[in-house]
Design brief:
It is built from 11 helices and 13 strands. With about 350 residues, it is an alpha/beta fold. Mean pLDDT is about 90; it is low at about 1-35. The termini are far apart.
Length: about 350
């Protein structure tokens, strides 16, 4: 029997996360081109968001969940990469192919997969489809893996306001869509609640239907340099996927602070050159959301419906890997108080600016 699960927050084992990196074609974990039935091994698949695997963030977090499932559950993992400028038909074809090959579950990494999952899921009723960051598409075999990004971003705003010496900080969104505006709203509220006189500069790299703002580091770098130089910001927080790495590079070049997103970017190998400038990161436990869904299918009790990861169960949070951050006792104290107040509903975090 399929079990419909609707819960407010979910407990998670770890808090590693990530966004996405540019790639085309078909990277694969194990062998994405062969059918699980050919080897008799159970298989799960993920279809990456814009930028693909290697973004040191969102997509890489999803990949970590798949790899964990391969190791812990002894399954076969399949991956499918996006292509530049692709449309809905491409996503429909990708998900259809993954489902036809017997992968279960099939997980779309990012809200852009919502229209495609709406079309494909009814054609494969015995396959569980997961979608990350979207609740608009529902069904008896669809799991909506969503997060309270605004809560983690609020904590980032508290930290940014505490460390800023100029009283001006910056927010950079990849694409101006409701999901990313949740990041902006929480961050701005956290800054203003901590320092009402602080100034928050806000910029978006692209507007839909142009989603390059999630994939091009040069755009993130240019926006951050503008905020750091002309704007006078000394802390920059980018929620922009792969493009966010450009903002981190810019902050490092100016000797200013950057705040990472989705994964603990201080520990990402691809950003090691700039790690000393990464004050902290707003984390989303995409890794465990992917792993937990795969495990539920393998256990014969697929979870579907809305599965929400919030601050109260560490589904979102603020990383403390940077030793410099750990030395900031007053910052940590302010962040911990804000976290406790959010969990206790003393602070209501906005989801729109």
């Amino acid at each position: 029997m399929r079990r419909i699960t609707r819960i407010a927050t979910v407990g998670i084992a770890s808090a590693a996360l990530a966004l996405s990196a540019t790639a085309c074609g078909g990277k694969k974990s194990s062998d994405a081109s062969s059918s699980p039935s050919e080897s008799g091994q159970k298989s799960a698949a993920i279809a990456y968001d814009i930028g693909g695997r290697g973004d040191q963030s969102f997509n890489d977090a999803a990949y970590a969940g798949l790899k964990k499932a391969e190791t812990d559950l002894k399954i076969k993992g399949a991956e499918a990469e996006p292509t530049d400028g692709e449309g809905e038909a491409d996503k429909v074809q990708r998900l259809t192919e993954l489902a036809r090959k017997g992968n279960n579950p099939v997980i779309g990494v990012g809200f852009a997969y919502a229209p495609a999952i709406k079309k494909v899921a009814p054609k494969f009723p015995d396959t569980t489809f997961g979608i990350i960051d979207d609740t608009s598409v529902t069904g008896g075999n669809i799991a909506n893996l969503v997060f309270n990004e605004e809560q983690g971003s609020y904590l980032a705003g508290v930290a940014a306001a505490k460390v800023s010496k100029t009283g001006t900080v910056g927010f950079i969104g990849g694409v101006e869509v409701p999901l990313i505006k949740k990041f902006e709203a929480g961050f701005t509220q956290g800054v203003k609640d901590t320092n009402p006189n602080a100034k928050v500069l806000s910029a978006y790299l692209t507007q839909p239907p142009n989603f390059d703002g999630f994939a091009k580091p040069d755009l993130g770098k240019a926006a951050a340099l503008g905020q750091l130089d002309a704007g006078g910001a000394d802390v920059v927080y980018a929620a922009a996927g792969l493009a966010g790495s450009g903002a981190i590079e810019a902050a490092s070049s100016k000797g200013k602070w950057a705040i990472g997103v989705d994964s603990d970017q201080y520990n990402q190998a691809g950003l090691a050159k700039y790690k000393d400038s990464i004050l902290t990161s707003v984390t989303k436990d995409v890794e465990d959301s992917v792993f937990n869904l795969i495990k539920s299918v393998q256990d014969g009790k697929p979870t579907t419906g809305e599965i929400r990861y919030g601050l109260d169960k560490d589904g979102v949070g603020l990383a403390d890997s940077n030793p410099k951050y750990k030395e900031m006792a007053d910052v940590i104290a302010a962040v911990e108080k804000a976290k406790a107040d959010i969990i206790a509903n003393k602070i209501k975090v906005k989801t729109a600016p």
